[in-house]
Amino acid sequence: MPRGQLKINGQDAYVTWGMSLSDSALSALMAPAPNKAYITNKSRNENGTRIIADNAKVDERTVTLQMHITAPNATQFFNRYNALVALLRTGQVEIWTSLNPTECYRMYYLSCTQFSEYHRRLAKFTLRMVEPDPTDREVDRSVYPHLMLDRDQLDDQYSQLI
Fold this sequence. Notes:
Blueprint: E1 6-8, E2 11-12, H1 13-17, E3 19-21, H2 23-30, E4 39-41, E5 50-52, E6 61-70, H3 74-89, E7 92-97, E8 104-118, E9 122-131, H4 151-161
Antiparallel strand pairs: 1-2, 1-7, 3-6, 4-5, 6-9, 7-8, 8-9
């Protein structure tokens, strides 16, 4: 993901950390969140189970994101790596991507399940994040004012490409 396509906590991830998301990370972000368990009732007076599906609610979700950090030299690599670790220690991470500009994923860092570093210039790592409320994805216009298009404008631009 080149410059401007990924923002984390309002900062360009490529410029700040040399960071990009893998294709699988984009798929993980876009996967629908699960619903909370439905209210059920098993009565000996009825066959089967009665399920009340009125007012279904979305549950939290845990997401695994594969990312990369690149740098032109070892010094800049370790500077970027240390800055990223400091960001993750704060806990809260907002992820925005230009590929889905109407949504901002509000997540909390849980752990790094894999980390591979190659020649002090490239790192591949997998982060486990939790999104406590997948319905809270509205983009903060004060953080991303120049990026905003409403859904109708995006649909119009897409239809012009086809």
